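G., before I forget:
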Amino acid sequence: MSISLLLLIIAVIGVAGYLFGSWRANALAGGKLSSLHSRPGYYGSFVAIWSVLPALVVMLVWIIASPIYISSTVRGGFPEEVKATSQAEQNLAYNMIGAISRGLNTLSAEEREAMFADSATARTVLAAKGVPLAADPAPYMLTSADDLNRMTKASGTFLSILVIVAALAGAFVSYRAIAPKFRARNRVEGVMLVSLIAASSIAILTTVGIVASMATEAIHFFNMVPAWEFFFGTTWDPRFAAAGATASSGQFGLIPLLAGTLYIGFVAMLVAVPVGLFAAIYMSEYASRTVRSVAKPLLEVLAGIPTIVYGFFALITVGPFLRDISAQLNGLVTGNYASFIQAQSVLTAGIVMGIMLIPYVSSLSDDIITAVPRALRDGSLGLGATRSETIKRVIMPAALPGIVGALLMTASRAIGETMIVVLAAGVAARMQLNPFEPMTTVTVKIVNQLTGDLEFTSPQTLVAFALGITLFVITLCLNIYALYIVRKYREQYE
Amino acid sequence: MSQVSTSPALGIATKPERRDIGLRRRYAAERRFRLYGMAAIAFGLLFLFLLLFSVVSKGYTAFQQTMITIPIEFSEQIIDKNNERATNPQKLVTANYPVVARNALAKVLGVSEDDRAGLKAVNGMISDSVRVQLRNLVTADPSIIGTTQTVTVLAHGDLDSAFKGQIDLTVPETNRKVSDKQVGWMNQLAESGALSKHFNTGLFTNGASSRPEAAGVGVALIGSLYMMLIVLVLSLPIGVAASIYLEEFAPKNRFTDLIEVNINNLAAVPSIVYGLLGLAVFINFAGFPRSAALVGGLVLTLMTLPTIIIATRAALKAVPPSIRAAALGLGASRMQTVFHHVLPLAMPGILTGTIIGLAHALGETAPLLLIGMVAFVADVPATPMDPATALPVQIYMWANEAERAFVERTSGAIIVLLIFLILMNVGAILLRRRFERRW
């Protein structure tokens, strides 16, 4: 019986349980609902929960446990000489048995007979059925595959019986528990509360998952490449991943990537901070209601545009534009029409990323500027200061910690940004100070190392996780510090 | 404020001379400051319009496609010379259909069958995708062999660019992809009405193709649709449940504090880190297939959850405590208060936040690159477990193609993506306008 059919059966039993439960509660009340502790629907839900939950738990446990049990039994049945081989070879044999067992299901009885009589024909027979095998199977594999099929089938049958029995038993027991004094609502609400708590722990599970998964892979990497070579190495040259190679053959220096990340982030902040800050100041202090209601949403559209669109914009429009204009400038000054800005460069990526960041800076600082108490503003204006003097001498100093926090958050976004730099910054990992040349970033290299064929044993792949955890830690620290500053600032005026 | 004016001395009849207290300078500074603010906003808006203009001006032509309508003779001589299609159905699949189309066009243009250079130029006008198109026609109905049918075929990508005026014809002939002869034929066909621009339905239905004229975002749209469904089905209930617990039930203790700090930080984790998580956990550890929409959906769900939780908590917080007090006072339990009264009132806010979270997930690219969605998928995925790609990933792949016609396709795909995002955001705004209550 397939899993989806089984789920459907459980659902049907659950719905039936609900109907019977509420019907019985109604019958017990005998037209006088106030004699019940809870409303009839709660009795129904109680029965439904008891029919569905235990059955689902049984199903989950079985689905996880049974393949493990079957695989260990099949491996236990291997001939002694196979058991003596390495783990990898045993895995290979087991995979082949799995393929054969899939093929066996498609054969008719006669074809089976013929195949079991002569295992040498198995490969051609199965290939005709669309199940390619890597090699001619040994005779024991055919019997093992047969065993595997039998056990899988038996396991499926047991699962169906067990789950249906669990559902019916749960329904029966809970149905019998229904009585006018039974506190059905409290039970149901208890289950609801537990599920609410479970849902909110997913946030913790995600963090644990991120840290654990990246840390384990990064530790694998640091077993092959010393940590100090990674963190303080100045050359990035990972070479290509050779199949099966575990020795590190390339150089994995983080410094050039980090330099590129920070440089591009710096250029982006150079664009985003003045523009964003002035926009926020104008919006919160000068703009009339109408201007504000038009300009603010329009600027925020910039935040809603996917970063891949910015990347394409940088690649197709901004990069070539900068290249051509630099050629023109060069020509006007020296007479030599050669461009000194490359299409993919720190400048291109930085400018476009800066545009992307404008709305972050402006809306975050807008909130913070508006939060400065009215009294400070009025006091300053009352003393005869102009508006700009009020802003420069009173509001900005008061809002400064909050704005610094906002800028740190923006910076963490710049560091983690991927698509713009993938398309516009280039892939050359080098350290230099010329903003007109391409540089590369941590995120670009994560993408580069993980697209294409992956081998989770080669340092070329695993280095991406070391880069990822570095990125994660940097952005996390920036954010925690920023949140701390903002929170402290908020307390100041509350 | 640096200079403080003193009051003029009393008893002097002449009008006191105004002292220079730097007013002019200060007002000038004020005006300058104001101007900087306006310039900043203008700069931001300028780039917004530049970006949109650059995409739209490059991409609007992608919604039209040049097609050639010609009578094609399905010559038995070429398709199935020895009449063996009854015994060998493979024959019809491997037949040389491009030649069929080329000969038909050559006949229309009056190019002799012996003029090899001419035939080659003619062949360069028709898309290679004609092979699949004619093959499907013939295998669906083998009886058309030997007859002449009027068929509309795709023009070659370069000819398409030329017909849309995107190729500079003043460039020397050897330096461009369309020869003068082909341009002449193109104009001749256009005059006779055989060659014209049609609405490009292929853009919305086709999958990946190495030929720009036959490439479309169909597969990507389906993949994105699957992912959005998975995100919606998982993140809305989980997000709402988590927010209800945190906002309405959670006691103030270490555990709930931990969850809160966690959610705030998860919202700021770079999206590419979620891709690494998906790769390590869902693909390497749990053994899900690579490139599947299921994995993409799960990764995007984890990424969207913090957004939805933050929006939902704000919406729950906005429901005034009097509602809760009234419900509790009438004897409702805390669960009943939340689910019967608070949640329905907070629903518009929750849905607005969800739509905005979904819009964000729809445009996200980086995590999908890592879980193998950068794949050449030509067939529409039947289930979320099949290899698929997503709209932004398709844009990324096309952006890396060198051909001119792909720039147009990429911009076209971006326009499609932006239209979806605009629709979703407008929906969210309307929802908020229509149902939002001010307490």
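Chain A touches chain B through 90 residues (CB under 8 Å). Chain A has 18 helices and two strands.

More on Monday.
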